[in-house]
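PROTEIN FOLDING TASK:
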Amino acid sequence: MSKSHLELTGVEMAFDTPKGPFVALDNINLKIQKGEFVSLIGHSGCGKSTVLNIVAGLLQATKGGCVLDGHEVNSPGPERAVVFQNHALMPWLTVYENVELAVQQVFRKSMGKQERRDWIHHNLELVNMAHAADKRPGEVSGGMAQRVGIARALAMKPSVLLMDEPFGALDALTRAHLQDSLMEIQQELNNTVIMITHDVDEAVLLSDRIIMMTNGPEATVGEDLYIDLPRPRNRVTLADNPEYVHYRQEVLRFLYEKQRKLEHISPRRSGKPEASKSKQSEAQAARA
């Protein structure tokens, strides 16, 4: 196998609290190849965002570390762009100016003025937002604003795109359109993508691998599921695909088992009926 593009080795993350250290992550080991689309999934509090923040260089692991292309990650850098659930655009700047902000920061010395302008328009065209270049974030929809956030991240030419529930706040139709756009862009640019999601169908549709996290504290990698589905992928065609259904069931099984363990260790209220608990658990697992 070729050398890993990104590697997390023996990562432990502990936070100081008044009651002593809280160990959020324990012995995280991951090897990710160039161009892979990897989703992190698990119940709330399992450390998904902590893993993403370590890769982004926003947090330093207590033990172990992250290496990208042979270099240790110990601070943020343009080769690792982050897309958040909230697009985080500057409301007083236009769509064009929001992307320009990132381009100026990274390529001010290496690109001429016209080259930077062309590059900004190119990235807006990638996400179908060139027509709204002169609008401000408050003048476009939430889905369009998120497209601009993706364009801003891509404009930095990152080798790794980090996405923290990028479509979680969007309606189902807008989410589906953006998922399709992301698949097309990722195939064209061959970026490595690490995405946090609570949506099982989204994870199976988009990913080459799904990393399933155990419950915290001391969360770690529970299962590493490879998604062997041909690309390009069509959500309608895949809905009845036996392999797609199998992968979906594998993720749901893992999440449902973890949910049952959570219920087993949590204190039960005496005298309260629990007839609907099983159905509630299944719904929670599907959203995890």
User: Anything to note?
Assistant: Residues 242-265 form the longest helix (24 residues).
